[in-house]
Each structure stands twice: as structure tokens, then as C-alpha cells.
Design brief:
The complex is a heterodimer of chains A (304) and B (344). Chain A is α/β, with parallel strands linked by helices. Chain A has two domains: 103 residues, Rossmann fold, CATH 3.40.50; 135 residues, Nitrogenase molybdenum iron protein domain (Rossmann fold, 3-Layer(aba) Sandwich). Helix content of chain A is 48%, strand content 12%. Chain A is built from 15 helices and nine strands. In chain A, the strands form two sheets. In chain A, strands 5, 6, 7, 8 and 9 form a five-stranded mixed beta sheet that branches. In chain A, helix 6 packs antiparallel against helix 7 and helix 7 runs parallel beside helix 13. Chain A starts with a helix and ends with a helix. The radius of gyration of chain B is 21 Å and the shape is globular. Chain B is mainly α. Chain B contains 14 helices and no strands. The chains are: A alpha/beta (304), B mainly alpha (344).
Chain lengths: 304, 344
């Protein structure tokens, strides 16, 4: 038999626990209100957005970056707050940020979590060049750097126009863009890489696919008649030349591919083509030089 | 021969364990990648977000994570103890009846379809993981009952096969999904401790505590069943009802834990074994003691995970396995000569 005192205690405990829940429910935080003052302390969690922030001349306001933010070099010197998908929340908060930026992605809910804590966040969609221009616009509006944004837009358009003028009217070689060689995975049509290929005067060797970066059988590669194979180098200890000779050896098995016959297999430095950022025109020019080497050797002298 | 468990001894052991747990909670909330001062924390929040980072770190990041580790650790260890006893299988863990793959599939669907909306600060991932976990357990239970008429082996086999089948579907989705979605779900599958909002923690704690209390009240019957089905029936235990209740409640608290923190391995397997080795197989003590030890274990593992390679963060499952494995082997060698593993 239970004593009445015990029952009373249990009821009191339950009531206290229940009211705690009620208080927590009422005080459960909602979205942070957008601040009307311009951010002075920015933490950027993805390298593409970091590059945009520096290109907008906001470098002196950056107080923290992710492990992978290595460009420009000043960015890499800022305090490291972990990776985007496994961030060190304590390190982020200890930087006392008033704006936290990152790419909108299913990889990480860190921006939502920070937003629930009351921080102003900018979650930027970065899937295409148009998205990147919109992201530049958003950041410029948030920080009041509209002047720099206009300059950035202008130089971006100028550089791209220069490349497209050079390669216009040339036949468009079919490009296979290898993002992973074993097993083979390539860039499909619905990617910003596809935009780079098109701007550089090429065309994607593979047709529309449901996946953005589909895995591909060698049969499909043989059928596509690939003229050029481009493979961004993997970051890591293996030097670029080594990766190039590995790729050459790997493809030698398939001399039926036009790109293998002509030796048009290129391992390229990844930063300007694998990262959707303000350095994109440099990447486009690099690819254009690989696809149309003659155009560039011809007018190198005149453009200098 | 071990002497019988007295009520006084049980209460003393539990009181000591609870004090250890409270000390561990206090210590772990003072440890982190950032140095914070308790005085600054006591000053309270500033006027704007970010005015007092020490307070923010302590109240918004560390304390929620410490609470989450305690809740999840207790739930997994308790469910593991129940499954090991009721299935009479030392390899049983909380995920054995399909919870892990069901939850994994649910979370993966939420990530790949990009369902954003949750409620009360719970992500859609958590909600779908919970539904997937309960769904797969229900399926296993149904098949096991249909095939086995109350026997254990068909239930175990159904669990293994459903796990394999759902894992294959997860692999299929991995093969066709966008690569960044895959990374997100792999990280989730490895265990995902984040600072949940207070109301979510409250809800999780309430559900799990209710489940644990119910299970602890069933421990005398569990003891009877662990002697054998017939003996239990002879002692007047409704074995079918007890078995059903313990499975449903254990699966439920496991599903709640998984939806809060992803799949954290090892806690539910080794903590009950360790407790059994040290304190003996009596469920009346095994269950509550496993809860407390599981909570302390996961708490310490999570603290190590967030501090040891800061600012990089380790998945907590890596720490539970690396730290827990050798320690468990030590216990195994030290105590197995005294007590047999499952009181057979």
C-alpha cells in the first residue's frame, strides 16, 4: 500500500515537470528578427560564400571561417570554426558573430540551428551561376556594399564576354567532366559545371540525366564520342602531375574514345572550376584554353 | 554464489550512481572547445544575441547537449538490457528488431526529398526516423508472431532480415541520390548529436522516462521469464503480455532516442553487459543501473567527441566504439569467471 505522502509527492513532481514543459513551450524560440544595422562580424561556413564576401570587400569584417575556406589567403588565417557539416558551435558563438553565412544545402542544418538561437543567418542557394549572382546581391544588400557589387558584376560579365568572343563560331567539342574516376561519376547537364563547359565553347558529352552527377558505365562513354576529358584534381597529398599520369594510364585502356586517341585528357586545378565563386571566369578561361588551344595561342600577343 | 539483492542495497547503489551522474553532468558542462568562465555565465544573457558569448555557449550549446547525451544514453542502455534479457541473446542491442534500418530509411527519405518542415523545432528527419523505426519494429513483430507463435528465433530472424532488406533500400537510394544528400544521411547514420531546443529535450525526456519507469515496473516478471518460459508461466506470469509490453516500450524509447540523435552504436550493447558483469543479472538492478551508466558513458563519449580534435568534431559513435571496446574487453576478462553472461 502506498502512503498518501508518497502519492502527493509524485503528483507534485508530475505537476512541476508538466509546468516546466509548458514554460519551455511558451518560450521556445522563433526565427530571429532581421537586424536593421549592417553586420560587422561575419562568420562564413562555406568556401564559395567566403570568396564572395572577400570579393565584395568585406574581408575586414570576417571573424571566422570553416576548415575549407582557403581563399583568399587572408581568409585561411581567420579563426577556424570546424566544417560546415560538423561545425564547432562553441567556436562559432565565441566569435560573437552578427551574420553567419553558408551555402543552402541538405548537408547541414547548422544555419537553422543558429537562427533558432537568435543569430542572423544567410543561407544562400549556390547551384548555378544565376544563383551565385543572386547570392552576391543578397550579401551586398545585407552589408550595404552595393558599389562593390556593381563592380564585381561588371568585371565578371567582362571576363566572361572576353572568353565567349574568343571561342565564338568554333565547333563545340564534346566534354566529359569526371568528378570521380573509380567508379566513374561525371557532371550532368543540370550543374554549374555544365554552364562552365558551355561558356568555354564546349558541350557536355552526356545527355540529360535525372541525377546532377550521375555514375556512368564505360559503354556510355564509348557511345558518346567524347572529344575532351577534364578531371578536376582531388585535393590531398597526391601531386597534380601524378594524378595526370594516373588518369592517362586509366583511360589508355579505351583507345576507341577520341579524347584518348588525341591525348586530350586534362587533370586541372580544382579551385576555380569546382567552387562556384567569383573566380569562375578564370575557370571558364582555363577550360576554354583546353578546348580551343589555337584560339588562344593566335591572339595571345594581341590581347596582352 | 552472489547474495540476493536487498531493497536497501539497490537504493544505495542507485543513489551512488545518481550522484556520479550529476557530477559527470556538471563536469562535462564545464568542458568544451572554448574556455568559459562561470562568473560570466552567471551574469545572464545580454540585451542582444552575442552580447555574452559565455552564457550563450553554456546555456544554448553545452547544457542541451549534455542533457541530450544523458537522455539518449539512458534510453539505449535500458532498451539494450531489456532486449538482451527477453531475447536471451547476448548479441542483442536496441537496434536488433529493425529500429536502425527503419529509422535510417526514414531519415534518408526526409533528406533526399528535402522535406523541410518539422514541428516544435523537431526536424522532419527526426519525425520520419521515428515513424520508420516504429514501422519496421511493427513489421518485425508481426512477422515474428505469425511465424513463431511466441518463440524467439523467428522474431530474431525477422529482425535480421528486415534490417538487411531496409539497408538494401538505403544503399539503393545512396546509389541514385545526389552526392551531397548522401553525405548528409551518412553523417546522420553515424550519430548526430546537436543542441536540440529545450522543448524537444523536454518532450524526449518525458517519453523516455515514462518508458523506463514502465519497464522498471516489469522487472520482476522479466526476471521470471529469463529463467525460462515454462518456469515463468508456472510462477503465474503472463509471459505473452510481458514480452509484448517490454518489446513495444523498448522499441519506443529506442525510436525516440534515435530520432533525437541518429544511430549511436555500442552503448546499447556493451553498457548492459558491463553492468551485468559487475552488478549481476537481476533485472531489478540491471535496468535502472544500465540507464545511469549508459547516460554517464554517452555523456563522457560526447564530451570527448566535441573537444578532442576541436574545432573539428568527431562522430560520437566513433568514440563510443574506440573507448568502450577495450574497456568492455577488460571487464569481460576480469569478471566472466565470477558470473556467467546471461545467468544460465
Amino acid at each position: 500500500m502506498r502512503k498518501p505522502l508518497t502519492s502527493l509527492l509524485i503528483i507534485a513532481l508530475l505537476a512541476a515537470w508538466g509546468s516546466l514543459g509548458w514554460v519551455l513551450y511558451i518560450h521556445s524560440p522563433s526565427k530571429a528578427a532581421a537586424s536593421d544595422t549592417q553586420p560587422q562580424r561575419i562568420v562564413s561556413l562555406t568556401p564559395d560564400v567566403t570568396e564572395i564576401i572577400y570579393a565584395l570587400g568585406l574581408g575586414d569584417k570576417v571573424v571566422g571561417v570553416s576548415t575549407y575556406c582557403d581563399y583568399p589567403p587572408e581568409a585561411a588565417a581567420e579563426p577556424n570554426v570546424g566544417t560546415y557539416w560538423e561545425p564547432d558551435m562553441e567556436a562559432i558563438v565565441s566569435r560573437r558573430p552578427d551574420l553567419i553565412t553558408g551555402e543552402r544545402s541538405s548537408k547541414s542544418d547548422v544555419l537553422q540551428r543558429l537562427s533558432r538561437m537568435g543569430y542572423q543567418t544567410a543561407s544562400l542557394k549556390m547551384d548555378s551561376i544565376a544563383d551565385m549572382m543572386a547570392a552576391i546581391d543578397t550579401l551586398a544588400h545585407l552589408t550595404g556594399h552595393m558599389q562593390q557589387r556593381a563592380e564585381l558584376d561588371r568585371s565578371f560579365a567582362l571576363k566572361l564576354a572576353a572568353v565567349s568572343d574568343t571561342v565564338s563560331g568554333r565547333p563545340r567539342p564534346k566534354v566529359l567532366w569526371v568528378v570521380q574516376s573509380e567508379p566513374l561519376r561525371v557532371a550532368g547537364r543540370n550543374t554549374f559545371v555544365n554552364e562552365i563547359i558551355e561558356l568555354a565553347g564546349g558541350q557536355n558529352a552526356i545527355g540529360p540525366t535525372t541525377m546532377a552527377y550521375p555514375p556512368l558505365g564505360i559503354e556510355q562513354v564509348l557511345g558518346a564520342g567524347v572529344d575532351v576529358i577534364i578531371q578536376p584534381a582531388m585535393a590531398g597529398a597526391v601531386p597534380l602531375e601524378q594524378q595526370q599520369s594516373n588518369a592517362d594510364r586509366l583511360w589508355q585502356k579505351w583507345p576507341a574514345i577520341p579524347a584518348v586517341r588525341t591525348g586530350s585528357i586534362y587533370v586541372v586545378p580544382p579551385d576555380t572550376v569546382s567552387r562556384l565563386g567569383p573566380r569562375l571566369p578564370m575557370g571558364v578561361e582555363m577550360v576554354a584554353r583546353l578546348l580551343h588551344p589555337r584560339c588562344f595561342t593566335d591572339d595571345e600577343g594581341s590581347s596582352e | 554464489m552472489r547474495e540476493l539483492l536487498t531493497k536497501k542495497q539497490l537504493l544505495t547503489n542507485m543513489a551512488v550512481a545518481s550522484v556520479v551522474l550529476l557530477c559527470a553532468m556538471l563536469a562535462c558542462s564545464l568542458i568544451g572547445s572554448q574556455q568559459i568562465s562561470v562568473l560570466n555565465v552567471l551574469k545572464g544573457p545580454g540585451v542582444t544575441a552575442g552580447a555574452n558569448p559565455d552564457y550563450e555557449i553554456f546555456v544554448r550549446i553545452r547544457v542541451p547537449r549534455v542533457c541530450l547525451a544523458v537522455i539518449v544514453g539512458a534510453a539505449l542502455a535500458c532498451a539494450g538490457a531489456v532486449f538482451q534479457g527477453m531475447l536471451r541473446n547476448p548479441l542483442a542491442d536496441p537496434y536488433i528488431l529493425g529500429v536502425s534500418s527503419g529509422a535510417g530509411l526514414g531519415a534518408m527519405i526526409a533528406i533526399v526529398l528535402g522535406i523541410g518542415a518539422g514541428f516544435l523545432g523537431l526536424s522532419s528527419q527526426s519525425v520520419l526516423a521515428f515513424c520508420g523505426a516504429m514501422g519496421s519494429v511493427w513489421l518485425v513483430w508481426l512477422v515474428g508472431r505469425f511465424a513463431g507463435m511466441g518463440q524467439i528465433t523467428p522474431l530474431l530472424l525477422a529482425g535480421v532480415v528486415v534490417n538487411a532488406f531496409l539497408s538494401a533500400i538505403i544503399m539503393f537510394i545512396t546509389a541514385v541520390a545526389r552526392s551531397q544528400d548522401v553525405l548528409a544521411s551518412v553523417l546522420w547514420l553515424m550519430g548526430n548529436m546537436t543542441e536540440q531546443s529545450a522543448i524537444v529535450l523536454w518532450l524526449g525526456a518525458t517519453l523516455i522516462a515514462a518508458g523506463i519507469i514502465l519497464l522498471v515496473r516489469l522487472t520482476p516478471q522479466m526476471n521470471a521469464i529469463s529463467f525460462g518460459e515454462e518456469e515463468a508461466i508456472a510462477l503465474g506470469v503472463n509471459t505473452r503480455r510481458v514480452r509484448f509490453l517490454t518489446f513495444v516500450v523498448s522499441a519506443f524509447i529506442t525510436a525516440v532516442a534515435v530520432s533525437l540523435s541518429g544511430l549511436i552504436g555500442f552503448v546499447g550493447l556493451i553498457v548492459p553487459h558491463a553492468v551485468r558483469l559487475v552488478f549481476g543479472p537481476d533485472h531489478r538492478q540491471l535496468l535502472p543501473m544500465s540507464c545511469v551508466v549508459g547516460a554517464v558513458f554517452l555523456l563522457i563519449a560526447d564530451t570527448i567527441a566535441r573537444v578532442i580534435v576541436a574545432p573539428a568534431q568527431l562522430p560520437v559513435g566513433v568514440v563510443t566504439a574506440i573507448a568502450g571496446g577495450p574497456f568492455f574487453l577488460f571487464l569481460l576478462c576480469r569478471y566472466t569467471r565470477k558470473v556467467s553472461l546471461l545467468n544460465k
